[in-house]
Amino acid sequence: MSDNIESVLHEDRKFPPSPEFSAAAHISSEEQYLDMWNRAKDDPAGFWGGLARENIDWFQDFEATMEGEMPETKWFVGGKTNACYNCVDRHVTTWRKNKAAIIWEGEPGDQRVLTYGDLHREVSKFANVLKKLGVETGDRVTLYMPMVPELAIAMLACARIGATHSIIFGGFSADAIADRNNDAEAKLVITADGGWRRGKEVPLKKTVDESMERSPTVEKVVVLKRTGGDVSMIPDRDYWWHDLMEGESADCPATELDSEHPLFILYTSGSTGKPKGVLHTTAGYLLGTTMTSRWVFDLKDEDTYWCTADIGWVTGHSYIVYGPLSNGATTVMYEGGPNWPDEGRFWEIVEKYKVNIFYTAPTAIRAFIKWGDEWPNKYDLSSLRLLGTVGEPINPEAWMWYHKVIGGENCPIVDTWWQTETGGIMMSPLPGVTATKPGSCTTPLPGVVPDIQTETGESLGANQGGLLVMTQPWPHMLRTLYGDHDRFLDVYFSRIPGRYFAGDGARRDEDGYYWIMGRVDDVINVSGHRLSTMEVESALAAHDDVAEAAVVGFPHDLKGEGICCFVTLKKGDGSEEMEKELIAHVRKQIGVVATPDKIKFAAALPKTRSGKIMRRLLRDIAAGRESAGDQTTLEDVSVLDKLRASDE
Ligand code: WT7
Hints:
32% of the residues lie in helices and 22% in strands. The protein has 20 helices and 30 strands. The structure holds 5'-O-[(S)-butoxy(hydroxy)phosphoryl]adenosine.
C-alpha cells in the first residue's frame, strides 16, 4: 500500500444531538469530553486509576495503575478482582437484585427473563459444575453454543473461577473448532444439541463430535438441551447440562484473581497463518467495557439495551455481556435470524420490549433497506432513543436511512470503531456531545490517542489517508496472541515501532474527525467480520484437484465485501459441479462464515516476474473494473485478458 491512500468520500452533513439528549447524558458537553480526553492523555495512570477505583469492586486494591511501556504495559498491578463478581454479585446486594439482567427471546418465540438474582444463582451453580468436572483456575474452556442465556451463564461461570473461555461462533466448522481447541489446549467444551437459525436446527453437538476426533486435550463435553434434536452422548465424556445442574449448590464465591489474569481468548483472522488467539485479561478489559458502555451508549438504569451481535464475536462479549452487566443494565439477547418468521422480527422485538438503545451492523442495515420500509413502519419504534453501528464503515446512504426510518430523526447514531484486539470501543461519537457526520466514527474516546501516519511513522495532516495507529496504551487492549508472543509483537507493533497498528487505513478531516478507509492488508470484511483471504486460499489449495488459488474481496451490496476465488485446477477447465464442490469444501474447512460468493476458474493467475500473484489486478476483475494501475511488472499480460473474457 502506498502511504497516501486516496479518499473519494465527501460528506458535509452534520447532526448535533438535541439539547434534551445532551442535558440528560452521562457526558453532556464538549468541555467535559475535552477535559477527560486531555486528562487521560497527559496522565493516563491518574485517569484510569481513578476510574478503576470508582467503577470496579476490588478484593484487593492495586499498587500501580500501569507498569511498563506499550506493548508490554500491565494494568492495575497487585490488584485482585473478578469480572463475574463485578457483573453479577455486586448487583445482588442492591435494589438491582430483582432487576432484569437478561431479557432473552428464542427464535421460535419463547422468552425468558433472568434477574440479577437469577443470574447469580445459575452462574454460581454452573461454576460449581465446572469445578466438579475438574476445571481449575487457568484452564481453557471452549464454548460453542447458540445465543441462549446459558451461553452468558457459562462465560460468567468460567470468569468466576478464573477459567479462560474461548468462544467459537456457531458458523465455524469442526476443523476450525479442533484448531482452536488445540491452540488453546482446551480441557472442556460446552455446547448444545443445536440452536435455531431461520427455522432450521444448527446441529452444534454433531459438529463438536466431529471436532473431537482431532481434539486430544479435551476431556469432557457439556451439552445443553436446546432444540431437543437427536444427539449421541458418549458415556464418561458427554454430560447433559441439566443433569449436572440438578441439585448443585448455588454457593460458589468468586475467585480472587490478579488484574492480569487471562479472562478470555477470542480467535480472529490475520493476513497470514492460522487464526490469532487474541488474549484479554481481567481488570483492564472489565474497566474498558464498563466505561465505554456507559459513555457511548449512555446506559441508564431505566434503559432496555439491545446489541444484535452474536456472542461468538467480540461485540457480543463486550457489549451484550461484560459491559452492560458490569453497569447493572438490562441487556436483550435474541437467538435467531433477523428475517424469521419474517423481515419484521427485529422491529417486533423493539416494540415488544420497548428497546431504548439499539446496536447493530451496517451489513444488517443494508439488508433492512433492501427488505423495505414497510417492515419497520409496521411497528412502534418510538421507545428508541439511541442507535449504534459497528463492524465496518457505514455508507452515508445507509446512515441516513437508519437515522430517518429507524431513529425517526430523533436518535443520535454512534458509529463505533474498534477491533477484537482493542477489547472495547476506541472511536465513537459521544451521543450527548458529538455532532455526527454520516460515515465517520468521529473522535477518540478518553484514553485513546490515535494518529494517522506514514509507513515511516510520520504524522499526516488533515485529509491525508494513511495508517491508523494508537500512540498510547489503554487498559482493555489485547495482551498477547495466545501461545505466540512473538507473533503479537510482529503483527501489531513492528510495522511502525512503538505504535499499535492493526491494519486499517484512515484519514482525519479538518475538524479532527476520523474516517476509516478499510483494511490495508489481505483481510476482507465480510458482513462486519474479518476473514483472511489467505485462510480461504489454503482451504482451497487443500483440495486434491486445485493447483493454485487466489482469493480477493469485491464490493457486495449486503455483505460489504464478498469472497471471490480464482482457482487454477490441476487438470480440466472447471465446471458448475466443481464450483459447488469447492464451495462445500471451503465451508467444511472453515465454516459457513467463509462461503465463497464466486469461484472463477483460470488456466493461469496474473503474476509478477518473481512469481507473486498480483491481487490488485484480481480485485479489479472481481469488481468488474478496468485496471488503472501499473501492469508492467506482469509476467504474462494475456492471462488478464483471458480472465476478463471468462467473466463475460
Ligand atoms: C475491523 C475489526 C469491533 C467489533 C466488530 C468487528 C472494521 C469495525 C468499524 C467502524 C469502520 C470498522 C475495521 C476493524 N470496523 N468497526 N465503526 N467503522 N470500520 O471486529 O472482526 O475485530 O474487525 O472491523 O476494519 O479493523 P473485528
